[in-house]
From TrEMBL:
Keyword presence, Transport: no
Lineage top rank: taxon: Bacteria
Organism of derivation: Sorangium cellulosum (Polyangium cellulosum)
Region described as Disordered: spans on this chain: 1-22
Protein name, UniProt field: Protein kinase domain-containing protein
Biased composition (Basic and acidic residues): 1-11
InterPro entries hit by this protein: Kinase-like_dom_sf (IPR011009), Prot_kinase_dom (IPR000719), Tyr_kinase_AS (IPR008266)
Protein kinase domain sequence ranges: 31-307
CDD domains: STKc_PknB_like
GO molecular function: ATP binding; protein serine/threonine kinase activity
Keywords: ATP-binding, Kinase, Nucleotide-binding, Transferase
C-alpha cells in the first residue's frame, strides 16, 4: 500500500543522472509519471499526476528506489519497512505518505507534493543579502517543526506500543517551508539508513555530520533526544548565522560535537534573548538527560519566547517571506507542471486515437515527449540543494 515521506524539495537537486527505466506517461499504480524532479544515488523522485474518480487532479511525488539499490535486499526491505512506519505519521507538519509498494520489481512510495523550499535554501538566500532570517519567522517555523517531530516520535504500532521512531537526520534540508507558510518535516526513515552508513568507515563519512548528536558520533544508543540535539544545532544556525561545530572537515566537526561545548549564542550576538539562549544551550547538552526530553517540551519553551519578543508571524507571512526570497519560482513551477500535463495529455490522446496507420508508435511518441519535456525550463533559480552551503558555512531542493 503506501508509505514514506518526501525527501526534500522535489526540485532541490535536479541533475541529468539516469532516473531509471521509467518514462513520462508510465504509471505507478494510479500515478501517471510527468517528469523526474530529482535523482540521487538511492532513489529518483518523479512529479506525477493522480486523477481521481470525481475528476479532480492531484500532483504528487513518487519516489522509486534506484537501479543501483534495487538489487540490495537490505535496502529494499529498509525502504518498504520505513515507508510503512512513516505512513503512520499523520500530522500537518510532516509530509503525508499516500501509498507504497512495488512495481516492476522496484519499491516505490507516493507522497504529498511540497511546493516550497528547504530551510537550507531559504537561509542561504537570506544570507546572500547579508542578513539573518527574522526571529519571528524562525520561531514560527521551529515551533511547527517541533510539532511535526513530536508527532513522529509518538507514532505507535497496532497494539499501541511506541515505535521509537527517530529521524536521525534533522538538518536544514529536511525541514521545508511551503509558499503558503506550512512547515513540513521530511525524509523520515531513509535517514535511519543513511545514519548507519554515514559513519560506517573512516574517510567515507556522508551527510550533515555537523548536525549529529554526541551519541550519534560515538555510536551509542539513540532515542528521540538525539533529534532534539539536532534541532538545537538548527536553532543555533538560524539565530547566529552558523552552526556551533565548524571543524575543517567532518571528522573534526564530529570531535567537537563529542568533546567541546559550543559558545553560547549571546556571546556571539548579545541581542539574543536570554531565554532563547538558554533553550538553545539546553538542547545542545552533551548528556541526553540534561536536554529537552520531548519535542513538545522544546516547542512550549519556544512559544514562550515568541510571546516575549512579540514578533509573531502568521502562516501567510511565513510563506510570503519564502516567495520574496525565491521570486517567481512558485509561478514558474506551476507553469512547468501545467506544460508537462498538457504534453502528457496530448501524447496519451495520440496513443488512444492514432490518426493514420503510419502514426507514431507509442514508443516514438514517448521519445517525442521526452525531448519536449527536456526543453522546458529547469528552474535553476529554484530551491537547489543548499544545505551543503549552510552546513559548510558552519564549517543546500
Amino acid at each position: 500500500m503506501v508509505g514514506e515521506r518526501v525527501a526534500k524539495d522535489p526540485w532541490s537537486d535536479w541533475n541529468d543522472d539516469d532516473p531509471g527505466n521509467f518514462q513520462p506517461g508510465d504509471t505507478i499504480g494510479p500515478y501517471e509519471l510527468l517528469f523526474p524532479a530529482a535523482v540521487g544515488g538511492m532513489a529518483a523522485v518523479w512529479a506525477a499526476r493522480l486523477r481521481r474518480p470525481n475528476g479532480s487532479v492531484q500532483i504528487v511525488a513518487v519516489k522509486l528506489l534506484s537501479d543501483a539499490m534495487r538489487g540490495d535486499d537490505d535496502a529494499r526491505a529498509m525502504f518498504l519497512d520505513e515507508a510503512c512506519t512513516a505512513s503512520r505519521i499523520l500530522h500537518p507538519n510532516v509530509v503525508h505518505i499516500l501509498a507504497y509498494g512495488e512495481v516492476r520489481d522496484r519499491p516505490y512510495l507516493a507522497m504529498e507534493w511540497i511546493d516550497g523550499a528547504p530551510i537550507a535554501k531559504i537561509f542561504a538566500n537570506q544570507k546572500a543579502k547579508r542578513a539573518l532570517l527574522p526571529l519571528g519567522w524562525v520561531l514560527h517555523v521551529m515551533i511547527d517543526a517541533c510539532a511535526g517531530l513530536h508527532a513522529a516520535h509518538e507514532v505507535r504500532d497496532d497494539t499501541g506500543e511506541l515505535l521509537n521512531l527517530i529521524h536521525r537526520d534533522v538538518t536544514p534540508e529536511n525541514v521545508m517551508v511551503t509558499f503558503d507558510g506550512m512547515v513540513k518535516v521530511v525524509d523520515f526513515g531513509v535517514a535511519k539508513t543513511r545514519a548507519r552508513a554515514q559513519i560506517s568507515r573512516v574517510g567515507a563519512i556522508k551527510g550533515k555530520t555537523g548536525y549529529f548528536s554526541p551519541e550519534q558520533v560515538m555510536g551509542g544508543t539513540l532515542d528521540r533526544r538525539s533529534d532534539l540535539f539536532s534541532m538545537g544545532v538548527l536553532l543555533y544556525l538560524l539565530v547566529t548565522g552558523h552552526t556551533p561545530f565548524r571543524g575543517k572537515g567532518p571528522l573534526e566537526a564530529m570531535q567537537q560535537i563529542a568533546n567541546r561545548n559550543p559558545q553560547p549564542p549571546r556571546e556571539i550576538m548579545p541581542e539574543v534573548h536570554p531565554e532563547l539562549d538558554r533553550i538553545i544551550m539546553r538542547a545542545l547538552a552533551k548528556n541526553p538527560n540534561e536536554r529537552y526530553q520531548t519535542a513538545a517540551e522544546l516547542r512550549r519553551d519556544l512559544e514562550q519566547v515568541s510571546l516575549a519578543v512579540r514578533e509573531g508571524y502568521t502562516d501567510k507571512q511565513v510563506g510570503q517571506l519564502v516567495r520574496d526570497l525565491l521570486p517567481g519560482v512558485a509561478e514558474a513551477r506551476k507553469e512547468r507542471i501545467d506544460q508537462a500535463i498538457d504534453e502528457l495529455d496530448r501524447i496519451l490522446a495520440e496513443r488512444a486515437h492514432p490518426q493514420k496507420p503510419q502514426a507514431a508508435r507509442p514508443e516514438d511518441a514517448t521519445e517525442v515527449m521526452l525531448r519536449r519535456i527536456s526543453m522546458l525550463p529547469i528552474l535553476q533559480d529554484g530551491p537547489e540543494a543548499t544545505a551543503e552551503g549552510a552546513s559548510s558555512d558552519a564549517a543546500p531542493a
